[in-house]
Write a structure and sequence with these properties.
- 81% of the residues lie in helices and 0% in strands.
- With 142 residues, the chain is mainly alpha-helical.
- It has two domains: 1-89, no CATH class; 91-142.
- Helix 1 (3-24) crosses helix 3, helix 2 (30-54) packs antiparallel against helix 3 (63-88) and helix 4 (93-115) runs antiparallel to helix 5.
- The longest helix is centred in the middle third of the chain and has 26 residues, at 63-88.
Length: 142
């Protein structure tokens, strides 16, 4: 499957993630929601890992890779808790999600540029500027 199709599928999954956090945020405390979310994700990831292992696929692991994955888990865990808190305060998903996701895109791009020495083309830079404008417009109404 081409990477772009996988990226669109990932975007759909993240949309479900944000949509269901919005719905759950009025039903339970943020910490409970985050733990349930992570438990389900851990079971899903464990099942996938077991499938790969049973198929005999090599699973090379490094200490650095584990540490980086743990840091990513720290980031996503905090993001989940904060997303539950944001939505429990009545922020519409049509406003909160684009600000969260757009802000994430901007900060990730900045880290790529500054820390990984990646480059941007002019159209890509303009796309990031449009995200900044979109976030400003969305935040202005709230």
């Amino acid at each position: 499957m081409p990477w772009f199709v996988l990226a669109l599928l990932t975007a759909f999954c993240l949309a479900l993630y944000n949509f269901f956090i919005k719905l759950a945020s009025d039903q339970l405390p943020a910490a409970v929601g985050a733990v349930v979310l992570q438990l389900v994700a851990a079971v899903l990831g464990g099942a996938w890992l077991l499938k790969l292992k049973l198929q005999g696929q090599p699973l090379p692991v490094s200490g650095k890779g584990l540490a980086l994955a743990a840091l990513a888990g720290l980031g996503v865990g905090l993001a989940e808790i904060l997303t539950f808190v944001i939505f429990s305060r009545g922020v519409p998903s049509s406003v909160g999600t684009p600000i969260i996701v757009g802000g994430s895109v901007l900060l990730t791009a900045a880290m790529g540029l500054l820390l990984l020495r990646e480059s941007l083309s002019l159209p890509q830079a303009l796309g990031l500027l449009l995200i900044v404008g979109g976030i400003a417009l969305l935040a202005r109404g709230h």
